[in-house]
Amino acid sequence: MNYSAHQERFQMSDEALFEMLREDHAWALKEIFERHNLRLFRMAAGVLNDDDQAKDLVQDVFVDLWNRRHTSNVQILSHYLSRAIKFQVLKQLRNGKLQEHHLKLAQKVQFANQTEELLNFQELEEQLQKAIAVLPTRCKEVFFLSRYQNLSHKEISTRLKISPKTVEAQIGKALTFLRSKLEGIVLMVAMLFL
Fold first, then answer.
1. Mean pLDDT computed over every residue of the chain
2. What's the topology of domain 121-193?
3. The model scores a pTM over 0.85
4. What is residue 168's three-state secondary structure?
5. Contact present, 31 and 17 (Cβ < 8 Å)
């Protein structure tokens, strides 16, 4: 391929490339792959914590895109690919190949909007863990039991031998502290994924 043909392909919109794909031009799939591979890999790896699985799922998305090129109703290719990788990750998790914690995370991811594409899940969790680490001991303990072990206020109250009002106050104190330490969107997404 000469330089001008390569430049022309490079300047094509995703949707124009998809139309070329519909016309059975394999080079269009290669160009779409080069544009979106890394982003989709990061999305999958951020949930799966397994680079090899993430690579396999991304490959599955592009094989599926090729196989469905004549039947898919694609409006915005980047959104279509994002939904496809989320679906592949959820399917992988539903097949029981990962721990229950990751399944809960993936189920919540499907309801998130495009915010997850802007944030790296591992960085988000690290920020949250650093903020939680500096909470006062009792506050941290109550927050952990509530958010990570999913205990009710009454169960926490019984386990720690404190009143339910104290449990509620400690959780409120933790959330107020975390809001002060984390940017609003980071906290919102962090709470969504807990």
1. 77
2. Arc Repressor Mutant, subunit A (1.10.10)
3. no
4. helix
5. yes
